[in-house]
Amino acid sequence: MSKGAKPKDVFDVGRIRQIIELMEQHELVEVDLQEGDEKIKLKRGGEVQMVAAPMAPAPAAAPAPASPAAAAPAADNTAGTSTINAPMVGTFYAKANPESPPFVKVGDRVSADTIVCIVEAMKVFNEIPAECSGTITEVLVSDQQAVDFGKPMFRVQPD
Is there a single domain that holds both residue 44 and residue 71? Predict the structure, then answer.
């Protein structure tokens, strides 16, 4: 390194501040980002991890952390049903790829660990489990539609 040259920052501090502001704005608890071989993981509560080592390619769909909001009761007057809500801000995908059938459709029975969709957030594909048992009665979002944290994606009639 030549005299006066500064080492390359893994991530720009201004960019990290923007990510933290977005986390607060959307009430996110955790964010994992990867850009090339660099990765940053932010958790509200003070933990920051940065890794600049080469990493193996991420699988097409990574499991998402459990969210208590994912099976919150429906806010409307649909008696006896609950909703599966988006656990993060991102893009909703009803199927693993364009040629695949949807993960679930109206009339399908799901259990707590049934994958119902993928939500892509910052180029990370997160498999979303139902986290409840019952029958899908309505799909509330379209494929490739943007979803906000807590947005109802499916209506479920519990067992």
Answer: no
Measure the CA dihedral 50/27/80/78, to 10°: -130
Same domain for 42 and 67: no
82 lies in the same domain as 139: yes
Could you tell me if residue 57 is inside a domain?
no
pLDDT for residue 57 is more than 60:
no
How long, in residues, is the chain?
A: 159
Task: Please tell me whether residues 35 and 75 are part of one structural domain.
Answer: no
Q: How many CB atoms lie within 10 A of CB 21?
A: 10
- Look up residue 91 and give its amino acid: T
Span 69-128, pLDDT tens digits: 444 443 444 678 899 999 999 999 999 998 999 999 999 999 999 999 999 998 899 999
Tokens (6 digits) for 89: 């801000």
- Rounded to whole angstroms, the Cα distance separating 95 from 92 reads 9
Range of the domain at 47: 13-51
- Residues 93, 18 share a domain: no
Select from 68, 60, 65, 72 the least CA-distant residue to 30. Answer: 65
| CB-count burial class (<10 Å; 0-12, 13-18, 19+) for 68 | exposed
